[in-house]
Every structure is written in C-alpha cells, then in structure tokens.
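Q: I have three molecules that I believe assemble together. Could you output structure tokens for the complex as a whole instead of separate predictions?
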Amino acid sequence: MSFNIFMQNVVNGLSLGGLYALIAIGYTMVYGILRLINFAHGDIFMLGTYFLFYAVAIFHLPWWLSFILAIILTALTGVLTEKIAYRPLRNSPRISLLISAIGVSFFLQNAGIVTFSGIPKAFPRPDIFKKILIIADIRIQIVNINAIVISLLFLMILLYIVYNTKTGLAMRAISTDTETARLMAIDVNRTISITFAIGSALAAVGGILWALKYPQINPLMGIIPGLKAFIAAVVGGIGNIPGAMVGGFLLGFTEIMLVAFLPRLSGYRDAFAFLILILILLFKPDGLFGKNVQEKV
Amino acid sequence: MTLLKLNNVTMRFGGLTAVDSFKLALKKGEILGLIGPNGAGKTTVFNMITGIYSPTKNSIYFRDENITGLKPDIIAKKGIARTFQNIRLLDNLTVLDNVMIGVHLHLKSSLFSAILRLPGYVREEKSLYTKSINLLERVELGDFAYEKAGSLPYGKQRKLEIARALATNPELLLLDEPAAGMNPQESQELVNFIRQLRDQFNVTIFLIEHDMKVVMGLCERILVLDYGVTIAEGIPQEIQNNPEVIKAYLGVDVVNA
Amino acid sequence: MNKKKEQLLTLIFVILLAALIWLAQNYFDKYLIRILNLGFIYVILAVSLNLLFGFTGQFSLGHAGFMAIGAYTTSLLILPVSQKEMIYLIEPIIWPLSILEIPFIIALLLGGLFAAIAAILIGLPVLRLRGDYLGIATLGFAEIIRVIANNIPQVTNGALGLKGVPEYTNLWWSAGFAVVTVFVIKRLISSSYGRALMAIRENEIAAETIGVNLTYHKVMSFTISAFFAGIGGGLLASLLTTIDPRTFMMFLTFNVLIVVVIGGLGNLTGTIISAFLFNFTLEYLRPIENGFSLIFFSVPKIPGLRMVVFSIALLLVILFKQKGILGEFEFSWQRIAQIKNSLISRTSEGGEL
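A: Yes, here they are, computed for all three components at once.
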C-alpha cells in the first residue's frame, strides 16, 4: 500500500471513529446514570438525520438553521423517551427498563417506516461537502476532515460541560451514587433529562455527519452504527466519557485499517468489532478505562 | 492436632497491605476469636482461608494439606464453611432450600438421573430432605422451613446462615460477626447457641466479633489484628489487659498517659 | 392431593393436549396452525432462555446465535440434494453436505447438539463476565455467528440463504418438543441441580462458599439452554422454509427476551402463556397495516404500523405489569386445588349469608 493511500485510510478511519465516539457518548452517559443499555439510542441517531432531511429538502430552510433545529428536535425526542418510557420504571428491576428501551427502539424504527416510508432517501449535501482536497498526492474528502473537526469540537464542549460546570458535577455525582446525590439536593430528574438531551444532541450531530459521509438514509440505518458505537462505549469502559471517545476512535480506526490491509476479510468487518469487544472484556472485564468494581465480601 | 495453619500469610491489594505475615495455628475443637478495629484486615483473613482471595505470599494448610489458591467451592468440599458479615442468604428461596443447597455438594447423582428421577436420585433427595429438616429442627428453624429466607427477621437470618454453613458438614466453621446488630439478650443466646454447636456438631470455630462480651464469654483464645498485623494473642484475660490492644482500640497510649 | 392423583391429572392433561393437537392439525385452517406452531416454538425458545436468565441469573443476549446454528444445521441436513444443486449460486456447496439428506428428527437433534457444543466453547471463557457485560459478549457472539453465515457461501449459501427447506414442522413436532423442553427444564429446576442454579442467581459468593461450582453449573445451564435454542431454531427453519443470516438478527433474541420478561423471570407458566400471547398479538395485528375498508372510507396499506401498535402495547405492559403477567403464580395441580378450595369456601360462605 502506498503512503498516500495509507494516509487516506488514516483520515477515513479517524472520521469514522469520530462518529462512533459521538454516538458512544450517549450510551455511556445513560449507562453511567441509569445503568441502562439504551438500545433506542441508535434510532435517536437515525431521527437526527431525518429531521435535517425534512428541514433542508422539504421546508427549504438554510443549512445552519436546519442543523440547529435538527439537533434541538433530536435532543427533545431523547428527553421525551426518557420521560415516557424510562422514568416510570426508575425503581423497577433493571430488566424492565431494558425491555422498555427495546420497545422504544421498535417504536422509533417502525414509526419511522410509517412516517418517512421504508424506502431509502438521498440525503442532500451542500457542495462544499462533496469536494475533494488533494495535498501532496493524498486525496481527502472534505467531509472526512469536517467530520473529524466537528466531532472533536463537540467532544471538547462535552468534556468542558462534564468536568467544569455544576451540571456536569451533578451528573458525575449521580453516576457515582444516585441516593447520596439526591440527599445533597441535586435535582436528579432534571440532571437525567439534561443527560438525555446532551447524549441525543451528540447523536444527532453524529447522524448528520454520517449522512453527509454516506448520503443515503433509511429508518433502520441506526441499528448497525448504534451497535458499533455501543461496543465502543463498552471497550472504553462503559460509564466513562473519555473512555467512550477513545473506544470510538479505536474502533473506527481499526475497522477501516482491517478493510484496507486485509480486503479479503472485509466481509467480516462487522464481526471484527465484536471480536475486539469479547477479547477486551476477557482480559479487562470493565473495559479499557472502566472502574474495576469488585463486590465487597 | 492442628486443623488450620497459616504461615506468615500476606495479602496485598495494589499498594495496600491488608494482612501482613499473619500466623495462625488453630487446634481442633477450639473456639478462637479474631478481633481488631474496623479495617484491620479480619474479613480478609477469612476471605483468604475460604478461597475468595488468594494470598499474595505464603500458604494456608488445612489438615496438613496446602489449600492456598483453591477455589471456594473446593475449599467448602474439604470442610470449611463460613458466614458473612453482611448476611448472604438466598433471599428468594425457602429456608429449607437454603439448607438443602448446603448439603448439595455431597450428592453423587448425575444430571441425567436427576431429570429422569431415577431411583438413586430419589433416594438421595429424600435423605437430603430428611437431613435438612433435622438440621433446621436442631437450630429451631423448623417452623419456618417453607418461608422465604429473605422474609425472616434479622436474628433468624443470622441463625439460618449458620445452619446453612453447618449443612455442608464442615470441620471448621468461620463466623464473621455473628452478633452484629443483636441486643444484649440476643447475643447472650448466641453465645450459648455457638457453644452448643461446637459440642453437637463437633466443629472447630473461628470467629470475628466486635461485641466484647460475646468474644470474652465464648472464645478460649483470641488474636488481635491491627493494620494487618497481629499485635496480641492469648486467653481472654490477657487480651483484656494488654496495653497494645487498648491502644489499638482507643487510639491513645492509655497506659502511659 | 397425593402423588398418584397428580400423575393421573398430568396424564389426562397430556392426552387432552394430544387430542387437541390432532384436532388442530386436521381441522384448523393453515394460518391458525402456523400461529400455533410459532407459539410452541417460542415456548421452547423462551423456556430455555428463562432457564439461563430467570433461574440461573445469567443475562444472555445470544439466543439468536444458537438458533442460527440449529437452524442452519437442520436445514442443511434435510434439504433435498436436488434443491441444494439449484440454490447454491455463489459457490457450490461443499462435500459431504452436498449429498447428505437425513431424517428430520436426527437433523433437529444434531442442530441442538451443535448449538450445545458452541455454548460450551463460548461459555467457558465468557461466563466469567457478569451482568450486562455477559449480555454484551453473548450478543457479540450471536452477531459473529451471523457474519460468519454471511461469509461462508460454500456452506450457508451466504446472504442468499437457504430456500425450499422441507416443511416438516407440524404441531406434533413443535408441541412435542415444547412438552419435552418444559418437562426437562421443570425437572431440572426442581432438582438439587436447579437449587444450585438458583443459588448462583441469588448470590454467587454465597453459592460458591457452600460448595456450588460456579463454572460447571453456569456452563451446564448455558449448554442446556443453547441445546433447546438450537432445536427451536431447527423447527423454525423448517416452518418458515426460508432462512438467511438476517433471520437471526438481534431482534429475534429481543423477541424471545420480551416473551420471557412478560411471562415473568423464573416463571414457566407465565412464559408459556406469554409465548402464545406474543405470537397471537403479532399475527392478529397484521390486518391493520394491510389496509382495510370500513363502510364509508378505506384505510390504505401502511407498512410498519403493526409494529408501531405492537411496541406501544409492549411499552404499556412493561410500564404497568412489571412482575410479568402472572406475578408469582406458578402452575401446579396443588395450586389449582388450593384455588378451587378457596373458591368453594367463598361461595359456601356467601350461601350462608
């Protein structure tokens, strides 16, 4: 493989990794706070792309406005799902919560098929995203650069919120110990809503970038990226935000490299992520950066 | 005869030394107490003996056999049973089931004969049932056989946990704070109960306890642990007057003050 | 109630069930027979998952993987040789699969066996993981199986899948295996082995210190569960007559999991009822998306609407019935006698008033 092709793959891997990281945040934050594997998160990601599609292609709004609207609407949907389907089960067995998440996932996918139709739609792309940059023989799609820059930007904002604001402190407190956090007068419900809003907003950003990269959308498009991002969250140590970012980049990068170096195995691309996951769990049962929570005897 | 021997056993968690060069020779039939302030490493000693942790250094011998690093279920089969500081019953199962599982480890029937209910299995299950009911009667829990373990009052839960340990037919019984949360009258009853156990079931008892009345009234010999190090050993009177022990518990040098 | 009487009642029950199956197989319409078949297959799948999750406390999301192994094994062994020559378009099928064609029952049992072997291989390393991590790892295993099925066309025919699998599954097979599954698992959980499994569910550390070998019992539960999942997969393949890797997506596991949770964790009676409830609900919701006309207006075909309604129903059930449809009730002749007695005493009291 020549150097320029290799570099193209590096850029490609990083941009895919950035998208996984953006989605993985939502899984990891919700797990940290509710101990819930939110199977509906991949479908929230899908909704983000459709909101943008409708804003741009149907209502002909300007791009910047559509972008903001799509993020806000997706965040609201995320908050709403928590209020309706998860909050009433706060004190129930965790498996009820998981089934509820599966129910929400089924609902969003099929409501998507009913309202948007199951036929894939071509996603509109502004011209600048179609361009290809050539630096010293290396051909780089602008959309990949954008994906890397935008995902890093949003990840920075997130880290700032989580580690430097009062809301972030409240989130971390709840994920450490919900009951004590409540006793410390932290508004648990409000913080959980904010968590869902942030996680869903990032998923929307990820979804939109995804659709700009692979410009075709359908109501079931969230399943596979959702699953992969979820793996990334677990690989990084579920509940750990920087871990989810590292996991996302790691997974995206190795996935692209696998296809690039071993094209014969490209059919196994989706299994590869799971193989990494199982191997990491066997050697580090709490993921790469997870806290080692052992039961005290 | 020495039943259990720990040779300068050390347990480290990362940089923290929880138990340092712990030495112990437990004689068959004795009741030995292990005391010390919170965090002294008492439960860690139990966890090493029962195989939940594997010591970082040196070995543990049970009946002259090296049991270091064996898995808990193997150690249970060799004849060491225990209770837990925070009671660990099988809450959603009946009192009877809790005890019957304890006897389970001595069963020989195969899975196949269990599913087909072959005569050998049925016979074994029957004798298991009789043994368990008998055991429950002996510890005065017979009336509660079909209640859920989790719904028993606290004192009875402690008793059931001891009964379950006895069901494995142990030679050595480790009790982790059996009197925790009991009022003076209950703990006095417990002292009598444990003494009876030793005589009736022919077990050696090693216990951790904070209630000094229980320890002094029950134990024939006492070990004191502080920051993972054994600071005293002797009969109850000796321990009561040992300045090192008083210092460990009260945190000041009472004798010199 | 004594043991003789209970056995007699059970015998009568089995005879009645057999009569009912005979009646259904011969006189019911094809559609209803299909739903009943699905119901019985889901009994097999859900009861076996309940053994692992409800009784042993091990959270597995790998059921679809074991079903896939059973389904592919069974289908490849019962597909007529001529059919195999026809459908393998990507690459020809490898020897000896190309010439094998064996009786259904043996193929089914081999399917179960292969699933069980896979369970031992994957279970030994993976069952050390706890809680959600175990669920994620087993989900990963199921997805890997699916990807492999996609990538070995000389065996599985890849993404094209297998078409024209002989339709041997009928109510005798599905109900027969459902009865065997329930019998074996019921016997297992009420034996000393079952108590050991439940001890693991309740408290692993306590179970270990009273002599329960965790690895052995977990792997045993996992293996038995996978065996029946494999059988269920085989029956399903021969009912659907067409399978491909997409048949075994994680949604299949989710469906089985839903049946288990709605039926109640550790509740066999509830699981059986919920298996039928699930399939009847799904099938009878079908008309609403196929379009229909009322007197004055007609509703067009709306794909997806059925699953929208279904997911709303699922959410309502899970929000309002968290302990399963039956709560703690478990069927036994004793319980039935108790209920009957309490009803009689209540009515006789009423009579006196």
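A: One point stands out. The CA atoms of residues 26 and 33 of chain C lie 9 Å apart.
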